Each structure stands twice: as C-alpha cells, then as structure tokens.
Amino acid sequence: GQQLNQSPQSMFIQEGEDVSMNCTSSSIFNTWLWYKQDPGEGPVLLIALYKAGELTSNGRLTAQFGITRKDSFLNISASIPSDVGIYFCVTDDKIIFGKGTRLHILP
Amino acid sequence: EAGVAQSPRYKIIEKRQSVAFWCNPISGHATLYWYQQILGQGPKLLIQFQNNGVVDDSQLPKDRFSAERLKGVDSTLKIQPAKLEDSAVYLCASSAGQKQGELFFGEGSRLTVL
Predict the structure, then answer these.
(1) How far is residue B67's CA from residue A36's CA, in Å, rounded to a whole number?
(2) Which residue of B has its CA nearest to A86?
C-alpha cells in the first residue's frame, strides 16, 4: 500500500525556536493535510492543502504542498509549550496517516 | 456543536474475550471512520462508512473485527475474540464529506488486552 515517510521522527527543541518537518511519498496525491495529536486525544486538523505549490498559513504554522505532489512541509515559528505533541501528515488516498513527528520542548 | 463521542474511554479485557466500542459522529456527518492506533504509530484506517454503507474495509481483520452503522448515524466496532496485539486506541472520526481528508476525531477508546 501507499506509504508516507515523515521526517524527523522526533525533535527536541528550545522554546522560541522554529520547527520544520516534512513528509514524502513515492506516489502523487491531490491533497495533503497536517494533523496534531495531543496525549490522550484524537488528532486535530491544522492545515489542509489542495493544490500543488500551495502555501498556507494558520497562525504560526505554515505548510506547503510540494510542486511534485509527492511531498509536503510544515513549519512552526517561535515554538511555545503547547506545540508539544505528535504531528501527522495525511493524504487523500484512503486518508492514510504518516508515522508522525514527535515534538518535544526542552525546559 | 457537539463533537464525536466515543465510549468507553478505557477497557481492559483478557485475550479471547470480546469487546465493543461505540461512536456517535457529529450531527449531519455522512462519513464515519474507525482507526486503530497502536502505541508509537500513526492511526491505521480499519473501516469507512458512507451513511450506512461500507466504502472501504480492506484493512479490517474480518475474522475477528466487525463494524456496523445500521441507521447511518452511530456505529459500533466489535472485536471477538481479542488478541494481545489488539491493544491499541480505537479512534472514531466523521466528516461532512465536503473537503477530502478533513476529519473530526473523537478522544478514542483505549483497549488493553491481557
């Protein structure tokens, strides 16, 4: 089946730092979405991208739909403690989730 | 607007026992999904319903898992008999279907099989 490769698997950063993560696949998709999951909760949609090359922002979050339609990037600027969690990329093909990027903020 | 409701939140059973999880989607959402999330992994789609019909159940282990959405609203996921490897969080999600991939998730039901 289709596979989404998320990178990095984990990140340990200081509060205030910017964060970048990405998701790649060997397949072409029409939609890329980014979800965040807090401990003990279900995932919540952050950003949805529907067009190749599209760049969309949601507050401190910015995501891009790669031109090749095989990848997507998520950036978080000026991280704060509530950004801690697991970030998943998701595509429209059977709503497949990647394995996630775990974001930790060092005290 | 009420979110996706799931119950129970936690369930502990012994292997070979049976268990059922219930989900009530957001009112008016035609599409309902059940996902299995094993610790440390991303959610894996088990079954997708459109109203009361199954759209995709290709990853549902049908020898032990079953799901129904008889009236096109709430849904039940059953496991019988449970195995140790079924220990996971079972997430229910719904969508209005207007934008592909935009799902609303419940808090999940955490199953521990001993």
Answers:
(1) 26
(2) B42
